[in-house]
Amino acid sequence: MHTEKIHIRPADITELDAINHVIELAVMSWPLPERVKRLSLPSYRYDATDFKALEVVVALHDRDIVGVVAWETADPKETPVEGPALLLHGIYVDPAHYRRGIGRLLFREAERAVHAQGHEGLLVKAQASADGFFLSLGMHRLTPEDPERHYANRFWKAACRD
After folding, report:
1. Fewest CB atoms within 10 A around its CB: which of 64, 65, 122, 124?
2. Tens digits of per-residue pLDDT, 100-117?
3. C-alpha dihedral over 125, 73, 91, 147, to 10 degrees?
4. Pairing mode, if any, of strands 86-93 and 121-125?
């Protein structure tokens, strides 16, 4: 893991182009058909409205944005505790910086927000190819009680209490 040169900080709305560039690079690296990636990419990009609803944090390497994480308050009915939680919108890392611990650093930032805001835990709705990553971070797969209502690849991690 090579995280010593990575700086984590809140994103600025003026960085939307750089943020969306990282998201595009990440999405286009997913193991999905090219057409699926191309058609779904617009739904992953952020805009100015998203900055009003989401907390967005970036990872920088030599002043370049190489990773992005975003979260918002989860619908309590979506969580296993039916209480206050954060919903992780995504962790995106520039593929040129994979395997350097950046995704883990960004995940830890979301965990800090869970703790700082007094939430019960962190909910993730992930791509199937990200299952191993989220399981390695101590998340637990949630089985959908109602497959028509719940996203198939959901994960939960309860907040650590001191």
Report:
1. 64
2. 999 999 999 999 999 999
3. 0
4. parallel
- Nearest CA among 85, 15, 27 for reference residue 56: 15
The Cα–Cα gap between 59 and 100 comes to 12
Determine the Cα–Cα distance for residues 142 and 41; give it in Å rounded to an integer. Answer: 26
Distances in Å between the alpha carbon of 104 and those of 12, 42, 135, 141?
21, 25, 12, 18
pTM over 0.70: yes
The two tokens of residue 58 are: 């970036």
> What's the half-sphere exposure (Cβ side, CA atoms, 13 Å) at 31?
4
pLDDT tens per residue, range 123-161:
999 888 888 999 999 999 988 665 555 677 889 999 976
For the domain made up of 6-158, the CATH class stated in words is alpha beta
Distance CA 62, CA 65 (A): 8
Q: What does the pLDDT look like over 79-94, one tens digit per residue?
A: 888 889 999 999 999 9
Average pLDDT over residues 56-64: 96
Distances (CA, A) of 41 to 38, 44, 49, 146, 148: 5, 5, 17, 27, 23
